[in-house]
Amino acid sequence: MDYIKDLRQKVGNMPLIICAVGVIVSDSNNQILLIKRSDDGNWCIPGGVMDVGESIQETAIREVYEETNMNIAELKLLNVYSGKQQHHIYPNGDEVYFVNVVFYTINYSGQFKPDGIESAEIKFFSMNDLPANISPTNKPFFEDFKELSRKKYKGIL
């Protein structure tokens, strides 16, 4: 079942409100895993759209596996993002406003590799040396994750 594809056949490119999930996967050096999107060449965290009947946690686990070939566990909620900052127009003209639930984890396993469909490349990046072409919808995630990391480093959390 491809809910969004079926919906797009009925409504075309008009703006849709889409429930999505993203996961910041962090390693022991506080680097984060990013994928380079195949459609627009921008870097972003792994994630995607929720399927009908799926929980948001199931979506996170499935999407990370599909895009990176990695298994994740022990998801912690970073934040929920919506509004104008989550507006995106795909290269094919499909327009969406995401309600993006973003988790983070340090618990992952597997050998990451791009799926060749959604992800063209996968790489860990330092939070202080992120690529210039970050997907605009992801920028608020990184700001919040940096702040969370600072608080943990200072022992506030």
Report Rg.
Answer: 15 Å
Domains counted in the coordinates: how many? 1
Mean pLDDT: 93
By DSSP (H or I, 4+ residues per run), the number of helices equals 3
Return the CATH topology. Answer: Nucleoside Triphosphate Pyrophosphohydrolase
Along the chain, the helix and strand elements come as: HEEEEHEEEEEEH
Q: Describe the oligomeric state of these chains in a short phrase.
A: single chain
Structural class call reads alpha+beta
Strand tally, please? 10
Defining key terms:
157 residues; alpha+beta; 5-stranded mixed sheet; 3-stranded antiparallel sheet; 24% helix
Tell me briefly what this model is.
The chain is an alpha+beta fold. It has three helices and ten strands.
What does this structure look like?
The chain has 157 residues and is α+β, with helices and mostly antiparallel strands. The chain has one domain (3-154): Nucleoside Triphosphate Pyrophosphohydrolase (Alpha-Beta Complex), CATH 3.90.79.10. Helix content is 24%, strand content 36%. The chain contains three helices and ten strands. Strands 1, 4, 6, 7 and 8 form a five-stranded mixed beta sheet that branches. It has a three-stranded antiparallel beta sheet with strand order 3-2-10, with no helix packed on it. It has a two-stranded antiparallel ribbon with strand order 5-9. Strand 7 and strand 8 form a beta hairpin. The longest helix has 16 residues, at 139-154. The N and C termini lie far apart (41 Å).
